[in-house]
Structure formats: C-alpha cells, structure tokens
Specification:
Elements lengths: L1 E3 L15 H10 L2 E5 L10 H7 L2 E3 L2 H7 L2 E3 L6 H4 L7 E4 L7 H9 L3 E4 L14 H20 L7 E3 L2 E3 L3 E5 L3 H12 L3 E5 L5 H7 L3 E2 L20 H15 L4 E4 L14 H5 L6 E4 L15 E5 L2 E5 L8 H19 E2 L4 E2 L6 H6 L3
Parallel strand pairs: 1-2, 1-4, 2-3, 4-5, 5-6, 9-10, 9-12, 10-11, 12-13, 13-15
Antiparallel strand pairs: 7-8, 14-15, 16-17
Helix pairs in contact: 1-11, 6-7, 6-11
C-alpha cells in the first residue's frame, strides 16, 4: 500500500503531515511513502533526507493523488485535487466537518473514506492520536509568547535599587489543553496567573500549575460527557460577566481559548469590559478564527480599543511549523497504525473500534 501527502496552500498552512522520522516508521510498518519534490524543504527537510529512507518523490502531485491508497493532509484538498482521487482511497486529516459538510459529503458519495481526527473520542487509547490536544498545547504556549512580546512592561516582579516593578497579571479564559499550557508558560515566566473555565474539573488542574481559579458562587458544571464545554444559562452568563468585569480592571494580559465544537466562539469579553481595562493591556484571542471571545477580535489584525490591543491569527501554528508538524505527523502515524492491517497489507475499517467508528464520516 502507498501512503502519500501533497503540499498545503503555504500562504495558509506551513505544517506538513509526514516528517522524515515518521516516513521511516511508515516504511517499517510495510507501507510505501510517496511525496512531491521539495515537500518539506522550507522546514529544513531536504528531498535527499526522504530519499535515503526509501521515500519515492515526484514532480507531479497528480501522480501522487492517483496512486496513493492513503492521503494524509492538514486540511481539505482543493476541489481540483479532490477530483483526482479514486473510489476506495482514504483521506485522513483535520477537515472541520461542521463547516465543510457539503465538500466532505461529495467525497463520501464517491466512496472515498474520509477520517477527520477532530472527531476522535476522548478515550485513553486515542490519546496518542489526539491532534487537537497536541496542536492546542503549542498554540497555548505561543499565544503567551506573542502576548509578552507585544506587552511593553516587564513580566516578572523585579526588585531594583530604583524601586520594584510588579509582576504582570495574566488571565486565561478557558482551561482546556491550550489554556493549561498558557497558564504553565505564563507562570514559568514570572507572571501572576488567574484562570476561569465553565468546567469545574479544571479548578484542580489550574491550581496544580500555580494559577488562581476564579469561580462563580453556586456555579453549574458545564462539561459534556466528551469533556468539552457547553453553553451556560443566562443567569450563569450574567454572573460570569460580573466576575470578569471586575477582574479585568486589574489584568495586564488576557489569553482567550474558549471554543465550543461546531459553533461560533462565545463572546465572553464584552465591549464595556474592555473599556474598563488598563491602557497598554493585551488580549490574545486564540478563538478569533471562529468569531472570537471578544466583541472586537479580527483575524490577522491588531485592533486597538482605547489602548487595549486585541490580537488574533488565522493559524498561530504557522509560527511553530517544525514543532507542530512533528507532533501532527506522530498523531497521524498512530492513527494509521491502528487502521492498517499489517498481515493483509490493507486498511481495516473496523466499525467496532470506537476510534475508527467516530472519526469516519459516513
């Protein structure tokens, strides 16, 4: 069997799905690897490095698309490239099925097996394949670094002969994977860190990292069975707004990470809250691409509201493409290894396997 990948649109996506160390693992598993020339050259992965491992390369992406049994990508292929795929081929990636329903359904109708890994069940066996967690980890870290780079004061407390500089105060909204990494990173760099989340299970995790968890009295636990957050009642939202409004008056940097799968990001920081923040404060909105957690978030723009700068990017992981590709490629390999029958040298779509059943789009 042949596993392949082609380049993404580099203006939107710099990550790759098959790194040289993972190509070696596929070959050891019994698969042939087929990639376009200069596939990872801009990340420092030369063609010669792939060829030494036994990877076949081609100038023609059409050849790869028509010959590969399994295609691994970051996002959905463009329509002209999708048309080159054949019946019974398998396409694996992160395809945002909520927004790309029609495109994916057209592939399914053509009997192409489409696996979208953001649909992975949150079970122990799937952790090594968990693309969302591995990428969110890096996003949470990088959001803090970007915020601190744009903040015009020192982060840790500094005691000098001329006086004391107080530590920066950071608020992390949403204590999922990205939020927890943001808390850990900000704390390591000397900030005083606060965090809030609608899932009460997050309190212990936040405090274990040295953060202070902000809770609403008589709060309801808004966690789904799959571990994601869900929307709260109007009464809860009102209490949350009051708590945030008071807290934001003394906060220097806010990292927003709150997302609800398949829905527009909830607007948590309202315009009146931003008006109460100190000039020079930074809000980094990791949810900007899904509408944003603030009233003013815009993708790939820095919005200035009364001296408060609101930042958000379409793909923050483009600033860490080597690390992000390394983790992504490992996640995909672990998924393929679970899907591939080594003895029969074919993929085994066993719908009794929860991992396969949940990620296969039918």
């Amino acid at each position: 069997m042949i596993i392949g990948s082609i380049k993404e649109n580099l203006s939107l996506e710099k990550r790759i799905a098959i790194t040289p160390d993972i190509a070696k693992k596929y070959i050891n598993l019994g698969l042939e690897v087929f990639l376009p020339k200069n596939y990872g050259s801009y990340l420092g992965h030369k063609d010669s490095e792939y060829k030494e491992l036994g990877v076949k390369t081609s100038q023609d992406e059409k050849e790869i698309l028509s010959h590969a049994d399994i295609m691994t990508q970051l996002g959905l292929l463009s329509e002209d490239k999708v048309l080159l795929m054949k019946e019974n081929q398998t396409l694996i990636g992160v395809f945002n099925p909520y927004d790309n329903k029609e495109k994916i359904n057209s592939l399914v109708k053509r009997k192409i097996n489409v696996f979208s890994l953001e649909l992975l069940p949150r079970i122990t066996r799937a952790q090594s394949m968990d693309v969302l967690s591995s990428q969110a980890n890096l996003a949470g870290y990088k959001a803090v670094i970007e915020s601190f780079a744009n903040f015009e004061k020192a982060i840790p407390m500094m005691m000098t002969a001329a006086g004391t500089i107080p530590a920066a105060k950071v608020l992390v909204i949403g204590a999922g994977v990205a939020g927890l990494q943001a808390i850990a990173t900000a704390k390591r760099m000397g900030a005083i860190v606060f965090a809030t989340d609608v899932r009460m299970a997050s309190k212990e995790q936040v405090e274990s990292l040295g953060g202070k968890f902000l809770t609403i009295e008589g709060t309801e636990n808004l966690e789904t069975k799959s571990g994601y957050a869900k929307e709260g009642s109007e009464d809860f939202k009102k209490k949350q707004e009051e708590l945030l409004s008071e807290t934001l008056k003394k906060i220097d940097i806010v990292i927003c990470t709150a997302l609800i799968p398949g829905k527009k990001a909830p607007v948590i920081i309202k315009d009146n809250m931003i008006n109460n923040m100190q000039a020079g404060s930074i809000i980094y909105d990791l949810a900007a691409v899904q509408g944003g957690n603030t009233a003013f978030s815009q993708v790939n723009k820095v919005v200035d509201k009364g001296g408060v700068r609101i930042m958000g990017e379409a793909n923050i992981l483009n600033k860490l493409p080597i690390s992000a590709s390394s983790l992504y490629a490992k996640n995909i390999f672990n998924f393929v290894a679970n899907l591939y029958d080594k003895e029969k040298k074919t993929i085994n779509i066993n719908l009794e396997d929860e991992i396969i059943e949940k990620t296969l789009i039918k």
